[in-house]
Design goal:
The protein is of the alpha/beta class and 589 residues long. It has helices at 2-9, 14-17, 20-36, 50-66, 70-98, 104-111, 115-125, 128-131, 134-159, 168-174, 187-215, 221-229, 240-263, 304-311, 328-336, 353-360, 379-389, 391-397, 410-419, 463-488, 525-532, 542-547, 549-558, 568-576, and strands at residues 272-273, 279-285, 315-317, 320-322, 363-368, 400-401, 427-432, 495-501, 506-507, 515-516, 537-540, 562-564, 578-579. The chain is elongated, with a radius of gyration of 30 Å.
């Protein structure tokens, strides 16, 4: 009876006593990985409850292992060793080499890499400096694990004690069996201590565990992205295995949408096309608050060139245009898909408008300064660009694409100048700028900065806040110069240029001490004003105004109407003279 009671009391210790080396080494590995990916910047901190959650995670894994019969357990444990160490090495390697831990894009790039490219990659990037740095910490843990494990296996073989676990030395520190060094009187106290400590650790990390479960429970990548924008409640994927699992999960979600989009390529058909507008140029900007635009009455000269062109009658601005969302990826899906907010099904169940242009006979060029696959890519960019970078979809949408990103948007101009030789008689040109993407100060060359913090004498705001105001307006002024250069390239053509940003941006509007975006689903008046109100305008060349006075007149009449950017594809189809079942006149301005 006492033996049964003692065995029952010893249950909380079994996960550790049956897997002592695994428990210790996995806790050490988790600790090393936590600090190995800590950015070398001032104020960088590790996840607050990392060691509590690490204890819970390792203990739970060991508890599951303890349920497996010994003859199978050692093999399952070996598989887990291989998985955990392999993922840890890759994760820390990515951080050291690319300044980013495992991401969905990295996993996607690996999946698209052949054996020759992989071997060339390792020859190029593996070096002694790399192995002696943070990655070396992980390799050292692995080496220690191999040495101890090998010694224990050798000792077990020499002693030929089949009943003893192959980790007998460390197990002797904990085991409640008849051969252990712990007296039976200590077992209840140790069990109680482990139980209490586990409960404490679980309580400390419970909110993050809930957030991890919530993050991995969505059905589409858009919801995942929105979850990650909730800074205060989003999950902290503090271990390489979690980051790997999330990357697999995110790629799985996007693959489902890609499959539906690819299946829909055959549905992207047009009945006829009159090529009404020979050259249509769509420029998609980034994070442009309409109320910071001189074109819309802002007191600072942030858009002098646009204002001048409007005064000449070349430029027609939409007075009340709004974004369909305040997240880039959502907006891109809405802009590129023939789907409109409120339609049945999802955006991926509709054709993408560049497919229709290509089917009609337009040459389609896409130059982006954001959405190219890169190792260091946030999930937001991954979510927004995955369908643009899928090979089948890209081939269906675009004839010409750029292959590199640039620090500044003048690189987009250089790319277009280099690729314009591919243009034909009828062209759709889509340019995607970096615009005012945070960090604002880094969006403008130093020699083109005009505003300083002294230009913003607003009471109650610090010097740092006023400097951010200046940085944002400098980015807008630089954007104005880029847009003017784009327009100049089409002044001699029969062309129309459309400018829209993906969404707005908060930059200390009113008395609010905040910049960036709230990403809230609760659309308040303030949020709508700052993050959804956007500038939108059409520029028409002299030849275009002469050849298409009816279109110009309709644009002028529509300039005061409310407009949401998810309807843009229908306006573009009308401008091109494309007739298709996917066009809806009620969405066309």
């Amino acid at each position: 009876m006492l033996k049964k009671i003692n065995n029952l009391l010893a249950l909380p210790l079994l996960p550790i006593t049956r897997n002592p080396l695994f428990f210790v080494m996995m806790f050490i590995l988790g600790t090393v990985c936590t600090y190995a990916v800590l950015p070398e910047r001032r104020g960088a901190q590790v996840y607050e409850f990392w060691w509590q959650e690490l204890f819970v995670d390792v203990y739970v894994v060991c508890a599951l292992l303890a349920l497996i019969p010994e003859r199978f357990r050692r093999w399952v444990r070996l598989v887990l060793y291989v998985i955990f160490y392999a993922i840890a090495i890759v994760d820390v390697y990515c951080f050291v080499k690319f300044d980013s831990t495992l991401t969905p894009t990295m996993l996607l790039l690996v999946g698209e890499t052949n054996s020759g490219e992989a071997s060339e990659f390792f020859r190029s990037y593996l070096s002694w400096d790399l192995l002696s740095g943070r990655l070396g910490w992980v390799l050292l843990v692995l080496l220690v694990n191999l040495i101890i494990g090998g010694f224990l296996a050798w000792r077990s073989h020499i002693r030929k004690k089949r009943e003893q676990d192959d980790e007998g030395i460390l197990k002797g520190m904990f085991s409640a069996s008849r051969s252990c060094c712990l007296s039976t009187t200590l077992v209840p106290f140790l069990s109680l201590a482990v139980t209490v400590f586990f409960i404490y650790c679980l309580t400390a990390c419970w909110d993050n565990k809930r957030a991890e479960h919530r993050l991995m429970s969505y059905d589409n990548i858009g919801d995942v992205e929105h979850e990650l924008t909730e800074v205060k409640t989003r999950a902290n994927l503090y271990l390489p295995i979690y980051r790997f699992a999330f990357s697999v999960y995110a790629n799985h979600l996007t693959s489902k949408q890609v499959t539906r989009l690819v299946d829909g390529i055959k549905e992207a058909k047009v009945d006829s096309c009159s090529f009404t507008s020979p050259n249509i140029v769509l420029v998609i900007g980034e994070s442009y608050n309409r109320h910071h635009s001189q074109l819309y009455g802002y007191e600072k000269a942030t858009a002098p060139r646009q204002l001048e062109r409007e005064q000449k009658g070349e430029l027609i601005k939409m007075e009340d245009a709004v974004s369909s969302w305040n997240l880039t990826s959502y907006v891109f899906k809405h802009i590129f898909s023939m789907y409109a907010v409120g339609d049945k099904d999802e955006w991926c169940d509709y054709p993408l408008f560049p497919e229709l242009f290509r089917d009609a006979g337009y040459h389609v060029t896409f130059i982006t300064n954001q959405f190219l696959p890169q190792a260091k890519e946030e999930v937001y960019d991954f979510s927004g660009g995955f369908f643009l970078n899928n090979k089948e979809l890209s081939s269906a949408m675009f004839d010409t694409r750029n292959e590199s990103l640039h620090d500044y948007d003048d690189g987009v101009l250089s790319d277009y100048d280099r690729l314009r030789k591919d243009n034909t008689e009828h062209n759709l040109i889509i340019l995607h700028l970096k615009g005012q993407h945070v960090h604002y100060a880094s969006r403008v060359p130093k020699n083109q900065k005009h505003f300083t913090l002294n230009d913003y004498q607003r009471k109650g705001f610090t010097k740092k806040e006023r400097q951010i105001m200046a940085d944002y307006d400098n980015a807008l002024l630089y954007n104005d110069s880029i847009m003017d250069e784009i327009v100049k390239r089409f002044e001699q053509d029969d062309a129309i240029v459309i400018y829209i940003p993906d969404h707005g941006e908060e930059c200390y509007g009113g008395d609010v001490h905040f910049f960036g975006r709230m990403h809230s689903t609760d659309i308040t008046a303030r949020l709508a004003h700052e993050e959804f109100d956007i500038p939108m305008w059409f520029w028409c060349s002299d030849r275009y105004r002469e050849a298409h006075p009816d279109i110009v007149e309709k644009l002028r009449n529509a300039s005061t109407l409310r407009y949401m950017t998810d309807a843009l594809p229908h306006t573009l189809l009308r401008m091109a003279g494309i007739h298709t079942k996917w066009y809806r006149s009620r969405l066309d301005i």
